[in-house]
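Final report, closing paragraph on structural work. Over the funding period we assembled a curated collection of sequence-structure pairs, and we close with a single example.
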Amino acid sequence: MPLPTLIRDNRPLDHWLGELQGALNTVFARPEAQRANPGEAHAEAELDEAARRHAAGLMRINHTGEVCAQALYSGQAAVARDPAVRAQLREAAQEETDHLAWCADRLDELHSRPSLLNPLWYAGSYAIGVAAGLRGDGWNLGFVVETERQVEAHLAEHLETLPEGDARSRAVLEVMKADEARHADHAMESGARTLPPPIPQAMAAVSKLMKATAYRL
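Its predicted structure, as stored:
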């Protein structure tokens, strides 16, 4: 009688190794956008040093925000119950990859760099995404709505405070803002639950801390 063959199921391990690779790619690799950079249609502005530093600080905030979005959506998708919700999160994450690439390009053009704290922000956002996803898909989508609404609000603020001549940054942020609004609307239509009052306020407080640190670091 032949001896039984022991087969080890590596699928969970493969899954989490894939998540780790995604984290490393987001934080350390150069992302590739699937859509053309909106800023490429505009000429580079001649900015003085103060204006250049301010524009770079804003774009660094937005780059870190996209790192957080990648982590949040990856964490949520990793534990989503409904395949349709999982697919929706993955689709949104792909558009956020475009945003990440565009912000990275703009930082290069402004002779600056991403935030040094991005690994920490990714880890924290991924943990929040997993926690949200474990509560169920309605809460999962509720986090998408609240996240996108807050991002949309700070993009609107950045559009008001960008140096007036920086058309390249402005074009990128305008497309990002439209995408974020669409993601929130899609999540609402898909059955998002409204988050209870303490959670949006806590998310806003964390976002405020992220913006304050990413602007400089």
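The chain has one domain: 46-216. Residues 46-216 form a domain with the Ferritin fold (CATH 1.20.1260.10). We thank the funder for supporting this effort.
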